[in-house]
Design a protein that fits this description.
4-stranded antiparallel sheet, about 170 residues, alpha+beta, Alpha-Beta Plaits, about 25% strand
Length: about 170
């Protein structure tokens, strides 16, 4: 049975989209997913499920919309894909808490980084279905906007490493 990592968009960030992780876990179990475990309150869930990525994503998004009363985006990666995202991090020499992978449904456009605005000391690289960003001075004061990342969701490398570890343990 495939193992997936689900990354929810705009959950428990800045006071928007409040969702208890116990509720997220219960929704996944009700959907028939197995080995369900959540990680921190920003909408991360690891589980095994029958079906393709598209089928699993659609099922989880339907449950979340019924719960929240509005669409909640979900980005999925297989256990192998989340491990590959971690391994491909081009900024492994940078602090993992200041380096993120922005997860996207599709490959980023080749000119995605050219469209970035508000750049200061951030470094950016394109991944397979990710955009990697190393925030030199930190994220708190960053004004960086990448239009191609607007429909994605970011996780720092510490979180990606933990999710990869959790997925590998299933």
């Amino acid at each position: 049975m495939p193992i997936y990592v689900g990354l929810l968009r705009a959950v428990n960030v800045g006071g928007t989209g409040k969702l208890a992780m116990a509720d997220l876990k219960a929704m996944c179990i009700a959907e028939g997913f197995q080995h369900v475990a959540t990680y921190i309150a920003s909408g991360n869930v690891v589980f095994s499920a029958e079906g393709s990525e598209a089928q699993v994503k659609a099922a989880l998004e339907r449950r979340l919309e019924a719960y929240a009363g509005k669409p909640v985006g979900v980005l999925l990666r297989s256990a192998d894909e989340i491990a590959a995202v971690l391994k491909a991090n081009p900024f492994s020499d940078q602090p993992p808490n200041r380096t993120v992978a922005v997860f996207l449904d599709d490959p980023p456009p080749a000119d995605a980084l050219d469209q970035a605005r508000g750049r200061r000391d951030e470094e950016m690289r394109l991944g397979r279905r990710e955009i990697y960003i190393a925030y030199g001075s930190g994220m708190g004061d960053s004004k960086l906007k990448i239009p191609a990342a607007a429909r994605g969701t970011a996780r720092n490398i510490n979180t990606v490493a933990k999710l990869s570890e959790m997925a590998a343990a299933i």
